[in-house]
Every structure is written in structure tokens, then in C-alpha cells.
User: What shape does this take?
Amino acid sequence: MAKITLSQLRHSYFDQPRGPEDYALKQIDLDWHDGGAYALLGPSGCGKSTLLNIISGLRTPSEGRILFDDQDVTHLPPDQRNIAQVFQFPVIYDTMSVYDNLAFPLRNRGVPAAQIDKRVHEIAQMLEVEEMLNLRAAGLSPDNKQKISMGRGLVRDDVNVVMFDEPLTVIDPHLKWKLRSKLKELHQRVRATMIYVTHDQTEALTFADQVVVMQDGEIVQIGTPVDLFERPAHTFVGHFIGSPGMNVLPCEVKEGGAFIAGQQVALEGEIVGGKQGQTQIGIRPEYVSLGSDGLPATVKKVADVGRHYVVDAMMGEQKVSAIIKQDVPEPGQAVHLQFKPEQTRLYRDSWLATAAREASAS
Assistant: This one.
């Protein structure tokens, strides 16, 4: 296990990049601590896989360094980085038994047979596949094959990091939650440094202690799942995390306040930063309610999603989503929208531009 440091890392697929737009990864400075559970989260094309390949040694960065426990490994090949990787599709030997699949990484390193047997049974117990040890891997279901692939990554106790590259892609939706829970449990038991790459917010937020959200080759926020949901540092994070995502509404800033359609909207705290740039209000649907006063709107659609209703209302041409549990309005009905002040944030050029009241008072 290792602390992983990415220092002034940039990467371009062009031989002579001319500007920021030519870089698949803009400058990245990041520390992942020994034994942590981390996720790289973002849409396709944001740079997740490029970053993972650089960490694993499959690709050398154009600029910057990668350090494992302060040792520079930037130019070391994968086999000298002491890593394990679990891919989208299970990497196992179909002709071997489950036992031999789990034992193979240890046998390949000359580990004594008794130690191999002990470790294989430990991992099999964690994965709940002990009854399968004598079965040929070819006959396993896709989810069990991926379990074995995960086990092959975890069976060694000398790896610096275990990396998961969208490992649940081929798993049936009704089985994904089981493997997500199992993977979280495994991390808590083995305490290896783990990095999980995914475009699925549910997978990232249920697995990781810290989530790195990426967009267009940049890190836009690093935080706990609660941080990312409660206080997005960038409107992209608000859009990408949550279902439905955060409402982002154009607003005017004047006299120290924010206004929508001429009506002032109470914010979480003081407006900070510069005075130039496009300004927007961000408010999650969970913190929008209906009341006797507030911003006037007309209900466009109501969706029953089981535990609550999602109400889409229009303020002129601007849609606002609200999560409502009772007293649901009808489509076409005139309503007033109220925003919970402590959850109402101002963004300038997409970046958070309000200070929480607790922070401003300290």
C-alpha cells in the first residue's frame, strides 16, 4: 500500500501542444493517502482513463511526476510499480479452477504453498465464493467472474494500489448493488489503497471516502460524498451529482444581493470574489419548496418516483425542479417557489462565490 502523489501532471496526445485545449489532462496536483478509498468520477472523455493509465504506467505523462510513497515512478513500467488492476471485463483464466485463478498471482511470485492456500481461502471467504473454489471459472456467472477478478487484485498483500476501471459495466443492474457493497466491505477489511474509476455517481459515492470529480481534463472538486452533494464547488458538480441535478438559474447581482426576475433571493452567506463574470444561483431540488409567497412559477410536469414527487415548474423560460412529498400541485397550476436560504448558493463563471455563514462568522 502506498501514498500516491501526482505533481504538476499534464498530458497531451499532441507532440507539440500549443495551448490548454491540446491537453487531455490539465495540470493536476493531488495526494491520495495510504489505505484510502478514492473514486475518479466524470463523464466519458473527461480524462479519467488517461489519468488511470498514467498512474498504472501504461502511459507516460507529457509533464509532471507520479510518486508512490515519495519515490518517483513516472518512468517505471507497470510491472515495477507493484499495482493490481481490475478492468471492465473480468480478467480470469477460464480453463483454471477458481482456486487456481486466485492462487496464480502468488504462485507467479514464488510465494510458499502453505501461505498461498491460507491467503486464497481468506479472500474466498471475503468474496463469499468458498463453495466455488473447485469449479472451473468458465462456468461462472458474469458477477461471480468479476468477483474472482477482484479477488485476483486483492490476493496479494504487497501491492501499492488496487485500481478498478469501471468494474461493474457488464454486471446486471440488480446485482450491481451487491458487488458495490462487497467492494466497500473488502476495502474496510484489507485497507488497501483503492482507486475506483467510473462515470456512475452511485458507484463512486457508495464506494469512496473521497471523490475526485473531473471535467474536460480538470479536477473541479475533491470531497466526501456529502461535500459534493451539499456544497458543490462548481455548477458541473451540481449538475452531475444528484437526481435530478442542481437547479442553476441565471441571476443579477447588485447591492450585495442576488436577484431573479427583480426579486431578491436570500443566499447562504456573503458574496465573495470578484465582481465580473456570469452569475447564477444554484439550489438543489431537495431544498425547493412550495409556499404562499416566493418566486412565481407554473407547474409543467409532475413525476411520481415512489418515495416522493419531482415537480418541474417554469419561471418564464427557466425550468426549476422541486422534490415534494405531499400536497402535490397539478400541471398548469400557478405556484410560488421558496428556496432554503442556507442551501442557496451564488456561482460566478460556474465557480462557487458565496461563503457559508459559519465560515464568514469565524
In short: The chain has a mean pLDDT of 91.
